[in-house]
Amino acid sequence: DSRCWIMVQVGALTSQNYKTPKEASAKIVRLAPPKIYKAGHCFYIDNKIGIHCFANRSHKPAVSVHLYAGPLRRCRVYDEKLKPFEWVKLEPINQPNEEWTDNTVALPPQ
Fold first, then answer.
1. pTM here?
2. Starting from the edge strand earliest in sequence, which strands make up the sheet with 85-92, in order?
3. Residue 15's closest CA among 49, 41, 54?
4. Which of 13, 35, 104, 108 is the least buried, fewest Cβ under 10 Å from its Cβ?
């Protein structure tokens, strides 16, 4: 289980929470209407709340900081086009200036 504190630094983000499906192929169900968080807004989410999605619904830049507690070695990612969930391995960054690729989420070394 992971816990996450989020702060929007610039712009605004739309947050949507979904019920965690029991099977990877199950349809996701919204738990509540989406919420909009603006710069300076802080909030909390964890696995017990459900699956979350954050999106910049505007054409303006948005920046957020996510602080996760409990080391994350993998996470489930939902593909909106294909509809399935898949586990994605999170890899530590080995060098301070190491380049990130589009398919790798990097974590600092422990």
1. 0.67
2. 74-78, 85-92, 105-107
3. 54
4. 108
